Amino acid sequence: MANPTENTGPAAESWRRKTGLVKWRGLALILVARNLKIRYKGSALGFFWSLLTPALTILMYAVFAHILKFNSGRPEYLQFLVTGLIAWGFTAGTLNDSLFSIAGNANLVKKVKFPRAILPLSTALANGVNFCLTLVPLVLYLAVTGSLRPAGFAWLVPAALFQFLLCAGIALLVGTLNVFFRDVQHAVGIGQLAWFFLTPVFYDLPMQLGAAPMHGAWKGLVFLNPMTGVLALWRRGLMGMPFVPEEWAGTVSPWWVALSCASCAAVFAVGAAALRSGDGKFGDVL
User: Fold this and answer.
1) What is the rounded distance in angstroms from the CA atom of residue 138 to the CA atom of residue 54?
2) CA angle 188, 258, 274 (to 5 degrees)
3) Phi, psi (deg, nearest 5) at residue 44
4) pLDDT digit string (tens) for 163-205?
5) In terms of Cα–Cα distance, which of 262, 244, 263 is closest to 253?
6) Among 156, 141, 147, 167, which Cα is nearest to 57's?
7) pTM above 0.90, yes or no
8) Which residues are CB-contacts of 170 (< 8 A; sequence separation ≥ 6)?
9) Are the C-beta atoms of residues 98 and 171 closer than 8 Å to each other?
10) CA-CA distance, 88 to 248, in Å (whole number)?
11) CA distance 5 to 171
């Protein structure tokens, strides 16, 4: 039988494309596995830390809240808090790990021809796998405390999809920029801290809406922050919380959450465009 690579035409082109995709998929899986192994290299417990860390985080905040008698004036505040913290951890982990996803693989970039997007995307995938593991103790905790609302589980699908889209975009953008502008690694720390405090992780959405400088329905522009909507989706899916609290229901429409979803898509588009623009220059710069 003739080798399709020796022929021309649509069939040969299709065959070459498929075999190339298989090869790239294999490389992506290797890089994801490598990133996960590096995370736990030299650790006696290994991947078990992905389960133990959120469990200890929940315990730590439970003790902290008990000592200070702090519940933020709302029921299920601790459950609300740890759900936000664990979801935020996926984004923060990807942001930090993607800084050197390209710059840290200079030898591979200069010697092997492959889609450079695989490097930052494998970082996002590795963090996604780790995040899925951290959801296990979170779901168990919510179930034990009676805060889990299975009726809302359908919302977990868009929550996961849009957060991964956001993380993939961040990885592409930050990984590319750090090749050309090494100041990015210093700016990321400050930027991440500012983003964290502008996102309703510790405080709830009513506080964010109340502090927003806009008026009336325009306060929904707080959802321009992609993580505002992503956290709303996670809390809706796991705890059954409304997208917009009752006290703001007459002012701000729940449809503003779609703005956060659009922001996630925009970040991905910008990241993809940045990588496409810099792809041909990586080898020269590195």
Assistant:
1) 7
2) 40
3) -70, -35
4) 999 999 999 999 999 999 888 888 898 999 999 999 999 888 8
5) 244
6) 141
7) no
8) 91, 94, 95, 98, 124, 267, 271
9) yes
10) 24
11) 34
